[in-house]
Please model this.
Amino acid sequence: MKSIFSPDGSAALRRAVETAALLVFDFDGTLAPIVDDPAQAFTPRETAELLRGLLRRFPIAVVSGRARHDLVARLGFEPTFLVGNHGAEGLTDAPPPGHEAAAAWLRARVAAAAPRLDAAGVRFEDKGSSWTLHYRNAPDLASAQREIEALLDALHPGLERLAGKCCVNLVLVGAPTKGHAVQALVARTGARSVVFMGDDVTDE
Model:
C-alpha cells in the first residue's frame, strides 16, 4: 500500500479530485480523534470547517460503524450522505431475515456474561443493527480478548464478526457493508472516482 503523502499518493489524489469525485470518511479515528470514552468523540471545529468548504465542490459521505442518530450531533457539519451501522443504516434499512432472533441471542449472552465482561474491562455497544465489544481500556487486553472469545463461542448463525482495533464488531449476516454502501453511493451520485479515508479494518 502506498502512502497518500508520497509523491505517487499525492498524484493519485490529485487525479481523483480532478474528476467527479465522491469523498467518503469514516468517523472515529478519521474525522474525530480516538478517545478513551467514545461519548466524547467529536469532529474538531477546524476539520468541520474544512469539510463544509469541500461540500461546495464534492458530495461527501460519512460511513461509520456508529448508529446514524449518534453521529448527527458529533459531526459539526451536514454531509451529503450519512450511513451508519457499517453500511446497514441510511441507504436501505430493511434488516436481513431472522435479525430479531440473532439480536435477541446476542443480547441474552451479553446480559448473562455482564459481570465477567465488566471485570475484564469489556464494554458492549448496542447500535440496533450492529454491535461492538470494546476493550481498548481493559487493564489486561489478553484477558479481555479471552472473555470476548468465550462470549462468542458457537456464534449465532445470523451473526458474523468483523475485526477491529481493540474491538470486535458483530453484524447481521447479509447486511450491507461499508463497501456495499460506497458502491451504492457511487451509483447514486454518478461519481467517476472515490476518495475513502478511514483508519480501521472495516474501512480497509
The chain is about 35% helix and 20% strand. The two ends are 11 Å apart (CA to CA).
